[in-house]
Amino acid sequence: MNTATPVPKKSALWRVFVVLMVVVFTPGLLLVGSVWWLGTSEQGSRWLADHANRLLPALQLEIKSGSLAGGLQLHQVAWREPDWSLRALDVELAWRPACLLATRLCLTALKMERLEVVSSAEPTDRPPELPEFSSPVGVAVGVLELKQLLVSTVGSEALLIEGLKGRNVHLKDDRLAFKKLQLQLQGNQLEARGDLRFVGEYPLSLAVSATLQALQQPVHAQLSGTVRELRYELTEIEGVPLRIVGTVAPLADGLPLQASAVALQPFDWTLGDQLVTIKALEAEISGDNQALNLDLQGLVSESGLGDVPIAAVARWRDGHIWLERSELQIREYPLQVSGEVVWSAEQAPRLQNVEVIHTTTTL
Q: What is the C-alpha to C-alpha distance for residues 242 and 299, in angstroms, rounded to an integer?
């Protein structure tokens, strides 16, 4: 009589253990493998981008190459709302994923060929709203490079900023801080450091160095206040001891501004081929980005004329200065001068349509 050989209990328990391990760990391994594939392969990144485009109709992601873990190159990143749109072209992105464990987004490099910000909202008489913003995670950008930033609104000329470069840019909660930010605006080179907060009227504090075409000299300034009303103080103009303080409204139409200027000490100034010494100068300036009104008085010295007191009311527009009223006294001859001074960075100032009247009033 044949009898079946009984299965040892130990072998049966081992089979149960193996089955349990497969059941418990296989989903985890599949999950880890999927995450690894999504993060380290170009195909995984494209799959994520496609799903993001379907889930968020306002978003458009077009990946050129790369992966989330190793860095991405994108044809474009776009976001469209009814009243505004944003589009970034030829974007390069590199980051450190481990920073997410500390609830931070660490971008070692963020480079863009062009960033376009377009507002399609119709202009109104009301000042633009400033929405408050606080980032849920801290963001750090080691290297920021943007070749062109174009900002356009309905009924206004587009603003083009070129060559924007930043180092050590940080966003924490509602505060944006940067140690170095370089850009070119309307032919003028600027470099800034400081911080800006996205609350209330957007308070800010900046130290700015600029090379302005109109002055052909480096300028150093301190900016404070808010985005709606910005206070500025020019602390140094290379070779020219002037102190200029004033305010400007960056969000208002025409960029209205006002300023007071005073010479801290006598300085030399070249007008054409003539060297003059500005012994004293006080001026009040008001206007906008289209035209400025100047009311000044001072004392000018020239080797052949001696000391010449001057008082003038003038208007500047597009490199032209119209002398509405100008009074000066050359030795014992008080004069009134009116006319036009043509001024440009490429040429020395020249006079045209000038009228000189001898008066009996002494300055």
A: 15
343 three-class SS:
coil
Query: Are the C-beta atoms of residues 221 and 252 closer than 8 Å to each other?
Result: no
pTM for the whole structure? 0.69
Cβ–Cβ under 8 Å, residues 178 and 187: no
Provide the pairing of β-strand 257-263 with 274-287: antiparallel
User: Residue 72 phi/psi, 5° resolution?
Assistant: -120, 145
Which of 261, 270, 271 has the alpha carbon at shortest distance from 237?
261
Kindly list the distances between the CA atom of residue 214 and the CA atoms of 218, 259, 303, in Å, as whole numbers in the listed order: 11, 17, 27
Q: d(Cα 250, Cα 219) in Å, to the nearest integer?
A: 19
Report how far residue 55's alpha carbon sits from residue 298's, in angstroms, rounded to the nearest whole number.
67
Q: What are phi and psi of 332, to 5 degrees?
A: -95, 15
Among candidate residues 212, 230, 214, 173, the one with its CA nearest the CA of residue 347: 214
Question: pLDDT 10s digit of each residue in the chain, 363 long?
Answer: 455 555 555 566 555 544 454 445 444 444 444 444 444 556 666 776 677 778 778 888 888 887 666 677 888 888 888 888 888 899 888 878 777 777 788 888 889 999 888 877 776 767 677 778 888 888 898 988 989 888 887 766 777 888 888 888 898 999 999 888 888 776 778 888 999 998 988 999 999 888 766 556 678 889 999 988 999 998 767 677 888 999 988 877 777 889 999 988 888 877 667 788 888 889 999 988 788 888 888 888 877 777 878 888 888 777 677 777 777 666 666 666 666 666 655 556 666 666 666 665 544
